[in-house]
Amino acid sequence: MSVEPRDAALARLYDLDLAEDPGDLDLYLALAERTGDPIVELAVGTGRVAIPLAAAGHHVVGVDADAAMLDRAQARAAAAGQGSARLTERLRLVRHDMVAVHRADLGPSLADGAGLAILALNSILLLADRARQRAVIATMGSLLAPGGIAAIDVWLPQIDDLARFDGRLSLEWLRIDDETGREVIKQAAAWYDEQVSGLGERFLGEAEAAFMRIDGKPLTGSPWNQRRLPDGVSDAVAATSVTSPNYLATKSGA
């Protein structure tokens, strides 16, 4: 049996994590109608936002540094186009650091700037320090045509939220992955660092990887254990067989 590459597994699990619609697409469709084309989306991921925009007739350039994410986006676009080249012609995917990207990197359609620049669903928190977060906002401004709009979606925690971020492990969901037929669990732990005014979060998924090991090391004696899961969940999850890499990600921000 072939082992799924780690990056490909993360991209697949990213889509599973967003299987429940975040409810933001109507906003971007409305903004796109207001601003006109072209549209650029930074941290395009697997195309959750960009592909529906292209399907609605907009010309979209999506930027991401993750090749596996872009591979899934390309496959998703091809499937959405149902054999028609028109959708894929309206969508251009570019592998690049979103902080350092320039108009010239994105093709001739961006020569005069974008009507709309999008950084959706907390993607700015993937940038681990304030300097890079400020830099990506400046980058978005440089990609816009005069009068263009930059839309950044980011969660701003309240004081009560920060009080709960003490490193405790919680169960977020247990779902069936239709691509593999396996049960997948997502756990999360978050903590607030007053020294940097930063929020850190770790996600553990794919039941066996989350409960049995991190990067091949057993979790015995680690705070990442089953004690905070609801009764009965740990037994069901422990019986799940998982072969793909564990789902680990880190993000922090102001």
Q: How many β strands by DSSP?
A: 11
The CATH class of the largest domain turns out to be: Alpha Beta
Overall 3D shape: globular
The CATH superfamily title of the largest domain: Vaccinia Virus protein VP39
Determine Rg (CA atoms, Å). 20 Å
Weakly predicted, low-confidence segments? 201-254
Q: What is the percentage of strand-forming residues? A: 25-35%
| CATH topology (fold) name of the largest domain | Rossmann fold
Biggest β-sheet, characterized?
A: 5 strands, parallel
Quaternary structure state of the chains depicted:
single chain
User: Order of strands side by side in the largest beta sheet?
Assistant: 3-2-1-4-5
Terminal CA distance: 43 Å
Number of helices: 9
Helix content: 25-40%
CATH architecture of the largest domain: 3-Layer(aba) Sandwich
From the helix content, strand content and strand pairing, which structural class follows? alpha/beta
Mean pLDDT, as a whole number? Answer: 77
What order do the SSEs take from the amino end to the carboxyl end, as H and E? HHEHEHHEEHEHEEEHEEHE
Number of domains: 2
What is this structure's SSE topology?
Elements: H1 6-17, H2 25-35, E1 39-42, H3 50-55, E2 60-64, H4 67-81, H5 85-90, E3 91-95, E4 114-119, H6 130-143, E5 144-152, H7 159-164, E6 166-177, E7 182-193, E8 198-205, H8 207-212, E9 213-214, E10 217-218, H9 233-238, E11 249-251
Parallel strand pairs: 1-2, 1-4, 2-3, 4-5
Antiparallel strand pairs: 6-7, 7-8, 8-11, 9-10
Helix pairs in contact: 1-4
